[in-house]
Amino acid sequence: MRRRRWRPTVRKGRMLVNRRIDRFALILVTLSLIGGCSRSAARSRPASAIEPATNARPLILADSEGERRIHRPPPGTLSNLAAPFIIKVDHRNGGAPEFVLFTEDIPPGQAIPPHRHPDADEILLIHAGTGVARLAGRETMVGTGAVIYMPRNTSVRLRNTGSEPLRIVAIFSKPGYEEYMRDISVLEGHAALPLSVAELSAIRERHRAHVEYEQP
Prior knowledge:
Blueprint: H1 6-44, H2 47-50, E1 67-71, E2 84-89, E3 100-106, E4 111-116, E5 122-128, E6 131-135, E7 138-142, E8 147-150, E9 156-160, E10 166-172, H3 177-183, E11 185-187, H4 197-206, E12 212-213
Antiparallel strand pairs: 1-2, 1-11, 2-3, 3-10, 4-9, 4-12, 5-8, 5-10, 6-7, 6-9
């Protein structure tokens, strides 16, 4: 009696086992490649895309609180604004990464000279007082409760025409302008030395990416 009849069966069984092993190995290799790609992609993404990080701190500020500053008296040929203002929220105050808010009291007869912000939108809220706003060539009386929206690159001028300070709240969609404001002012309690024409012109040129002034 010949035993060769069992060899095809054994060979076939071995082939089936080998195929299953090969398939299992292929699955393991595929899963390993997918896992490796996922880990590589995670490593290649910036940290901010994985876990947003910010130094922002919640704030509740009273009307008089914040970074209190005084304008240095400007040369009359470029501006007459010498108002006190308070930087309330920015990257230094509260660690805000994206916007800026400050308040300012424009004395009677003084004005924010014509200017535009090339890279940021601005909203002005009239907190108290009366004045005249010139926005994109249109002139309008404004008073308490008025809102002025300036899309970037929109020319604006605001003048106090009343007998009381024109109190405004300014909000910017991007940081930058607040550093110009710091350069033309001093902290409250410090001597506010007058700005020369050359000094103010140099400061404005340095911050031209964030504010461009026109002729008063």
